[in-house]
Amino acid sequence: MYSESSKGMDDGPDSAQAAEPMGLRRLPSPRELMADAMADDRARETVARGRRLTQAAIAGAGTRRLLLLRLPLPALLEQAEQLSAWLSREEGWGVLVQPLAAATTGRGRQALLEQRRAYLQCLAAGVPLAHVLIQLNEMAYLSDLVSAVLLPPTVIESQIHRELASALPCPVLLEPGDADKLQIARDARQAVAASHRFPMLLSEGRVGLVESAGNPDGAVLLGPGMLPGGAPHLLAFDDAPERDEDWAPTCSGLTLTASSVAAAQRRFERWRTSDLLATAG
Q1: What is the mean pLDDT of residues 8-27?
Q2: Is the pLDDT of residue 32 over 70?
Q3: Which of the chain's ends, N or C, has fewer CB atoms near its CB within 10 Å?
Q4: pTM for this prediction
Q5: Which whole-number Å values give the CA distances from 30 to 137, 202, 272, in the listed order?
Q6: For the domain 25-239+246-278, what is the CATH superfamily, name and number?
Q7: pLDDT at 132
Q8: Half-sphere exposure of 35 (CA within 13 A, CB side)
């Protein structure tokens, strides 16, 4: 409990007053926010299709591989229909799109609502999404719209992020960023697959103690020269590598970062014609 006007014996602020926040803002419950921006049948089917695709790619089941496409959110919103049309013509590949957005200054109701609406616009075009998990509570507001989550290098060492990911209904992609964190990413994948007990924001807005069953659908994103070490993996490159040794064998898929759908399509076509890409899987 925060104290509004209490002083210690020497008239200085006590610890409760010193810890008082700059401001408090009530957030709606996840259920309230979802009611204001509800997923329809098409959106739910797109989410489910993206989850099935990612699970199959991670498990090595089937013949399709996964393309994790990283695009700025404004470009994605403007070109979602174009992206959907391109992907419908690709054979042997499925796609998840990771929206690249500027960091927000807060997670108030309006910011969360705008994010749900942006994701729903992408899903309406048939584009499944991968969400970067940094703010822990936001998955309570977005998990029904997300086909996969990505734990970036800044959080793969966080135990609470690993615990939360173990309870999510979608696959988890772990990005070490560099070779020094590769073993950390492998350890994180094992932690995500294990059962945990931890506090979690529930749909009605209360915090409950959750016991997860563990999430078996995890993969590591490998950069140049990183070896998979037996773990399911995707190859993470901003551009096509030039050396054979930069490609890990039998990959489940690739990542590609571009400024627009047209740029992504040109780069992917160049990869498709390379001997390295032909022998990567």
Answers
A1: 58
A2: yes
A3: N
A4: 0.83
A5: 10, 7, 42
A6: Aldolase class I (3.20.20.70)
A7: 95
A8: 7
